[in-house]
Every structure is written in C-alpha cells, then in structure tokens.
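Lab meeting prep.
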Amino acid sequence: MGESNGSTSLRVALISEQRSTYLQLGYSEEDCAALTHDGEIQAVLSTLKELGHQVTLVPGIESLVQQLAAGKHKCWDLAFNIAQGFHGPARESQVPALLGAYQVPHTFADAATMALCQNKANTKMVLNHHNIPTAPFLVIPANEPADSFPKLTTSGLQYPLFVKPVTEGSSKGIDTFNKVKNPAELVPAVQQLRSKFPAEDILVEPFLSGREFTVGILGAGEDARVIGVREFVWKKPSADFTNGVDGHPDLEFASRWSKSSRNKLILRDQDITHPQVQAACRVSLDAWKVFGCRDAGRVDIRFESDEPDAVPNILEVNPISGLLPDHSPLPACAESNGISYAELLETIIGSALRRCGPTFLTNGSS
C-alpha cells in the first residue's frame, strides 16, 4: 500500500459480472437483471481511481478463479465485490466463498450471509426466530405435484396471496399474475412461475397492501446506521392523486419494470422522522444485524396495511446492492443524506478495512 491524496492507497480488485457480456451470449434482459450494469462498473472503477486506489478489474467469476489459481490475489489489498453471480440458487455467495477460501479481504457480506439472504424462505425463518416481523408464508417445493396446491386453501393464509420464486432477485419472474386473488388463480400462477423457473421452490405469502420502503444502510454490527429511506410509489395515468400517491386498492406491486402496476413507478425520499419510516428503520437495522450484513446494502419493507399503526414486514434483505449512480436506490439514499458517491465508496472500503485490523492498515496484506 502507498499514500495518495492524503489517504491510504490500496490495490483493489474490482470484481463484477458484466450484464452486457451475458446479453451478447443470448440471455434475456430479465435473465441479466441482477448483473452489474456497465455504467455501474465504470462509475465504481473511476471513482476508486479518483480516491487514489490502484484498481484491477476482474470481469466475472471465471476470471477470478483463474487469477486466484495463478496467485495474483497476493498483490491485492482488498477485493471490492459487486458481482451477484449468475448460475445456481446461491449465486451471490460464490465470489465471497472464493475470496474467503483464499483469505482475500473483501467488501460486503461473507458467503454464509449471502446464501442465507438469497433464499427468501430461509430468510423468513430466521426473521421469525428473532421475532422480526415478516409475512406468514408457505413454500411449494419444485417437485410438488400440481394437485396438491389446493391444500394451500386450508393453510390459514388469507387471500389475496402473492407467489414468487424463492431465490430470485431484481423482481425476476414477477408480473401481474403473481397477485392471487382467489383459489382459482393459484394453480395457474404457480404453473406460470414453474414454466420460467422449473428448478425453483415457490414462496407463497399474503399480499401486503401498505406502503413499501427500501432502507439504505451503511456499516456493520453496532456501527450500522440508516443513511436514507426511499418509498416506492405507483402512479396510474387515469387515477386521481393526493400528493402524487395513487392509493387505488387494486394496484399491484413488485413487477420487473413497474411493480406490477404496468404504469409509472417513482421513488421518492422520505422524511426519516415520520413514525412509519422510523418503524421501518428499526426493523431494517434489526434484520441487518441478525444476518451479519456488512458495509452497505438495503432492506426492503412493506407495511401490512395503510393504517397508521400497521406493522412493517421485511420483504427482503439485500447484503449486496446496486451502485449505479442516478439509478440504484442505495446511492440515492446516500445522496439524500448528504453523502456523495465518492464518500459512499470510501465509507464502504473503510468499513471493510476495519475487519482487517490495525496491522493490515499499517503494513498492507502482502
């Protein structure tokens, strides 16, 4: 390590799975939804260099395997991981697992946390154990015969229900059919999901009709803090609005492009002193700490209803989150709290380095 711009200059390996590479191989936009946008790679790369770091781009897990096998990681002080993987139900854990095996310090959560949070059903089991609110649920195994689905009608879950793949992110596999209003719609919805994700279990839970927030978090453990909250707001062109919010009771949510409303979706910053926002922040921080998330990420929250005292339910814990400027919620949350993009990345690195101890900061990793 050296000194640059008055701060520690690190040799950083920037690891990503580039979306354009997979699109060129013939995969669809939905297939590649969770992969790193080219603009995000360039933004992180250029910003790390502006901060004085020496950056090596590692374009995907195959390149990472080759470089680890060749011993090139011995020249890295830190891996900045923005790769969310592509193949397998625990794909987000693959890069952290390799880095852990080779003892390479890296940003964001370890492999165990990544794998646990990737599976929404397992996430909910842990939340239930720790009395952190999340909607009741059932899982339909991938090999479950279709004639057993009607048993769900006696499960105690109240319609409308919502069905989704258990390990997908970025709203993959989500459209208007996912909201199941009555028993007659359940089997077709599950079969439609199975046609797209034949090897995946399917999560079934009550549809939550309240407000939805994404809570941006920095840090780890007791140092974790909320840096901003954004609300998903859906608009219908034909609807009447109050302060820009469409409160139509039939409005869907969580589709790939428009949260199933098939209309305009906006994100707006929220006053962190609002009681519902404060409630969302509390449960988000609780979940963040329980799962051992680190450095930066998001927790998605949806309220059970629009009542003032409604319970905020955890939808998803995101231990690794997009960093595309002017697009991804996490940097938007940071900006709304006066944290620039460069400061966000610098804070992420600082959080990761604290796990390495004072000897690393003094002498480097090699």
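Slide two material, second protein:
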Amino acid sequence: KDPDTGERNVGMYRIQIYDERTTGMHWQLQKVGARHGRRYYQTGTRMPVAIFLGGDPVFTFAATAPLPDGLDEFLLAGYLRKKSVELVKCETNDLEVPANADFVIEGYVDPREPLREEGPFGDHTGYYTLPEPYPVFHITAITHRKEAVYPATIVGMPPMEDFYIGSASVKLFLPIFRMNFPEIADIALPAEGVFHNLVFVSIRKSYPMQAYKIMHGLWGMGQMMFTKYIVVVDDDVDVHNTSEVLFRLCANTDPQRDSIFTKGPADVLDHATSEIAIGTKLGIDATRKLAGEGFKRPWPPLIRISEEVRRKIDALFKTKP
C-alpha cells in the first residue's frame, strides 16, 4: 500500500528465489509497486508485502490489467466474477489477501539494506533478462490452504500462454480506449510484439493527421507508453489479421512521409534499447491519405469482387449437377 494514501496495488511482479528466506523484488521503475516503494525508501521504513498464488484465475487477469491509476484491482476482479472478493488479513502484517488463495507469502522490503543482483530470469519477452540490482524481499510467513495447487505460466518465444491474457485485456478495455478516442474501431496486440512492443489500431478517419493524434494519445496511456511500434489503418481492415495489416502497410505508405520517430519510456525488460528504460518509438500511418497530408495524386480504389458477381459465383457452386 501507499504509506500516505493507503492505496492498494495488486500487480504481477516476478520474484527470483535467493534462499529459504529471501527473494528478489522485481518492480520496474514505472510500475505502481515501485512508486509505493519509493515512498518507503524516502522514509526509511520497512515496506510490508504480501504475495498470493492461486485462488480465482480472475486475480491474475486483474493484476495485469491496464487499469486507470488509483482503481483497486480487486474491484475489477469482483466485477468480472459478479461477486465481491472476500479478503482476509495476513498473519504478520496488515495487508489483505483473497481468502481463497492457495498460497500466501508474507514479508517486507527493507530500504536500509543494499540492492541485490536479480537475474538472469526468463520472461515473457522470449529472452532472459540480464542481471540488474533490485530490492530484496524478506519472508516472514508462508501459509496455504488444504490441497493447495501451485499455479504456473510458461513463458518463452511467442505465442505462449500469457498472450491470451493480453488478448482478453484488449477486448475488455477497448470501450475505455473509445471513450478517449471515439474514432478507434479496433485494436490488436500481435503475439510477435509480446503485448506492448507492437500495436495495430484501426480508425474511422475523418480529417488529416488523425492517425498521428491516435499514436500520441496511445503512447500517453498507462502501459501503452512502452509500445515501440504503432501501425494505424482504416476501419475496413481487420487488425487481427496480420497479413491484411501488412498489405495496407506496404501499399499505403511512403516511409519518409508516413512515419514518425519519437522518444519515451521503454520497458525495463527491453534489451534492445541503448539505455535501460529509455527508447525510441515508431508510428506509421497506413491509412488512406487525405488532402493536407502531403499527397496530391488521386487515391486508387481497392480491387474487390462486387456483390453481384459474388452472388453469381455462390449460385454456381450451389447448383446441383
């Protein structure tokens, strides 16, 4: 919890086991857990932490969902399961965990002790994260329910199990994106982009440079700040069909005119950036160009089968010999 506001954070943070009593606490510097941790580091007091495993599978989804800042993840979990989450107090600190969790690991992070190397660690990026210094989590208690089940997710080169969690998140939060950007028709996070590296978005375009408005807007929304590549297409494109998106990308763009490079925060797990947590983003406008976008030639129509021809072909196949 935030020591000032009492705001709770439920997130998915990896912990590398060091020994029977300690693990790493890999909270990336842009995450809420790290923000809460900085307040404890400023005051020099121990930060209580509770790790729970198992329980309702919706907890994993809620912990990784791109919620607006300050919204309790357990509220989302309760909404999705149509029943509030029953919480119980930990044994050795004042934090609360779901009553039906399979395992609970309680402990603390002490800001007065030095950081410790964490890694190498295989993550959802498909690569091993190289060693970096992170806080140490000290265990004070481990409890479990009868016949507890230890849950696990296998990560590696995509697509893996975690891809489907991200795909579900997009469907759930698409209405929220549309509240801010009503022109958005659909959004896809291709498996090859491991959630945040690559985003395809289709829009109902009505004015020049609208695609760039969407790019900058998405880069400013929560975890979307980590997105390295955004490709914007028209609303007649199925963004979940990568072949269709790539066709429009190749056919509708001039690389110099229709792309923009900018800098911003990068995922700590991104090994390709020159500096940790700082990187470059590329936005590509693969929409039909309008007057005012530097395109002065006529825009050609797509080759499509007319409905009349389609009906005739269908009728031929339905005709009995």
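Talking points for slide two:
The helical segments are 32-43, 58-64, 73-81, 161-180, 210-219, 242-252, 307-318.
The chain is about 25% helix and 25% strand.
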